[in-house]
């Protein structure tokens, strides 16, 4: 009890410390929810489009040199968030062999050898909650010094780390009490109080109904340090399923999961299959509004259904579909994942989890990974905060071109690649622009007159390379058929860009 009290007193005092100036100079201000409740922004009101990568085992698998190579590559590819587990298990060690905890006790982080951190943040008494040092201690440091290094290195590259404090299965198994969770969260919150590029991702592939007292203890405590907090749920669920009204939940995270339509049969799931836009739509329509994103869709290179390595693998085209479907449904961003990269599979290792064979150094350049930057560029190219989802721009002609058509097709569980559900057209618009996404590249009809302007200037945007091809201009009224380039097929995906103009 005395130890917990000391932690609490230190945490309360440290919470008042100013953010580390070195990190602020790196251009990574604390994020916040924008007015209206659907998007994220910086303190000066600039839009923040979350383009995340999944680097779950970064802390426990990579030494500094490799970690920096990874972060440099993701920065070059346009990513601004990396999702990382702090602890996958209570006995975790980092890549240098440093244990995270004393005797696997979550309330006793092992900080022996940790750097003292910048002077702007005071030591924390019973537990060393000193803020990150940019010195980057390696073999002579501690588990927490190495996390400090990653936080600072990411900040230097303009990257936020969405940190999962402890993976959910440990808590479901009953290995953590609310008191231990509170002590641990105070340690984390105080240690990184001066690190504006930290976002807390509570949970970890878990239902919130499993040990809700622990999740609320973590969430409430971490939220007190001023960083954004979300919850990473079990597959085919959203954090809103359990915590929609919790004040510590700043934005919702969805795990749409890794299953095909016909594989989505688990009892108690909503059975949206590959329609990840449905999770986003449901959360977007909630009141009060909170931002939402798909934080774990199907990973590039992972077997469809996850566990059977003989199944086909999800490819770049599938990942693009999940990205554009979810963002056009109102998401504040998207998290990409790659089977080899998320576990940092090494060439010297045997086959990794879920049949991973490519080394992470190769997989980091897979097609889907390099193509996500074009989505971010597109979304930031027009008025960001005015954007709303609007499937009313799509005229149902056949199959599942609209949400209504997709709902009708949704009653079937079989999903051959010619399934009409893949013909769904996602649409979003601002005051004087609109984007419509087709995954299959089939002709579709759009309803005009829903954005400002007497005329429309239209172009095709290629999600594979970010290039645009002009279509032409025409009056902004009635309905019009648009025929994407190329032969219709899954993966011949395009975005129709419409911009309103007063005159030709």
From TrEMBL:
<dbReference type="Pfam" id="PF12904">
    <property type="entry name" value="Collagen_bind_2"/>
</dbReference>
<protein>
    <submittedName>
        <fullName>Collagenase-like protein with putative collagen-binding domain</fullName>
    </submittedName>
</protein>
<feature type="domain" description="Putative collagen-binding">
    <location>
        <begin position="419"/>
        <end position="499"/>
    </location>
</feature>
<feature type="domain" description="Apiosidase-like catalytic">
    <location>
        <begin position="36"/>
        <end position="385"/>
    </location>
</feature>
<dbReference type="InterPro" id="IPR024749">
    <property type="entry name" value="Collagen-bd_put"/>
</dbReference>
<dbReference type="Pfam" id="PF13204">
    <property type="entry name" value="Apiosidase"/>
</dbReference>
<dbReference type="InterPro" id="IPR017853">
    <property type="entry name" value="GH"/>
</dbReference>
<dbReference type="InterPro" id="IPR025277">
    <property type="entry name" value="Apiosidase-like_cat_dom"/>
</dbReference>
